[in-house]
Amino acid sequence: MGVSETEAASESAGADAVPLLNPREGIPPVVADDAALERVIEMFAAGTGPVAVDAERASGYRYGQRAYLVQLRRQGAGTALIDPVACPDLSGLDAALADAEMVLHAAGQDLPCLAEVGLRPRRLFDTELAGRLLGYPKVGLGSMVREVLGYALEKGHSAADWSTRPLPEDWLRYAALDVELLIELRDALAGELERAGKLEWALEEFAAILATPPKAPRPDPWRRTSGVHRVRGRRQLAVVREVWEARDRLARERDLSPGRVLPDAAIVQLALEMPKTPAELLSLSSMRNRGARRHQSVWLRAVNRARALPDAELPVPSQPGDGPPPTHRWAERDPEAAKRLSAARTVVAALADEHTMPAENLLQPDVVRRLAWSPPAEVTPATIGGALRALGARDWQVRLVATPLAKALIRLEAKGEL
């Protein structure tokens, strides 16, 4: 189905969407003890077919990304809502579902917190990624359910504080509805993928998601403070580091989102102003918030630690990466690489349009950049394919793009532009 046909179908389905207000079997009781969990394990082990899975976190409220509710649904078992605070070990459920395909929407968001409680899919179907490969213009769960199945989901509680106990009934209804139609959505999208000749591509993508190792902790995570680009001096960067680390310790101890302890904007202002006294600190506009003022002595000590550091211990202005420099510098630093990048992007964009999917799903932008910056010494379809695989491209991507990319780079050489 082309983009215009998809959009037309979407408008038609959206106009006639049926509100989905309640789960078919009602709202199940929350599983919050071992006995109830054992009953769920037995029911889901006896069920058939794929298992719909979702998780709710408390992003913006609590420290980290742990799950505060896990929802599952399977044919023959119905829906289960599990409290992973009360039942933190779901490895028994995982073992019972070892042979089942798990269906998630935007799996990359939930897999880490599911792994923390012992749920690790061996087979995966990601309905969001399937929608991207099929060229759907909107791939949120609500949009996909509306466009593909013709139902309207209530999405009002996605940003709620799911660490709340007890969870309100309307939140539980919302959570149950998130998995109510996920299997039906999976089946419809699998059929579309097969008809479009993209099912094998999707299966490779799903397998790649499961094979991706957990992200290693970022070195110097304080460098990701929003607005840190305004901080120039090394002494001021040391303030960002010291205050960020003090905030992180407090946030972890209090189990709060770091931004609720002290906003990033306050860290940057402390670095730029470097107050010396409590009065100077409290005069800052970012310190008017009661939460920020509550720990004023912590922030002042952090600023003073940075002020007292010897020069040799101050952070450098930027941290070298392991990849190419920012692309806006290529024209000056390596004009030939800039030309290769432009040619490669043109090829990928054209192929993505031909196959009705976003360019970033046809080939990851970082792979395109790295290939353009450091191409093989001899450019052929085989060498380009090998380079793409080494950079993490999947086989289906290599089959589609290696030869066109090689031809484009060879044309640049033939024109004497490289």
UniProtKB/TrEMBL annotation:
Keywords: Hydrolase. One of its GO terms (biological process) is nucleobase-containing compound metabolic process. SUPFAM superfamilies: HRDC-like, Ribonuclease H-like. CDD domains: RNaseD_exo (cd06142). The keyword Hydrolase applies. It is an enzyme of class 3 (hydrolase). Coiled coil: none annotated. Its EC number is 3.1.13.5. InterPro entries: 3'-5'_exonuclease_dom (IPR002562), Exo_C (IPR041605), HRDC-like_sf (IPR010997), HRDC_dom (IPR002121), HRDC_dom_sf (IPR044876), RNase_D-like (IPR051086), RNaseH-like_sf (IPR012337), RNaseH_sf (IPR036397). GO terms for molecular function: 3'-5' exonuclease activity; nucleic acid binding; nucleotide binding; ribonuclease D activity. This is Ribonuclease D.
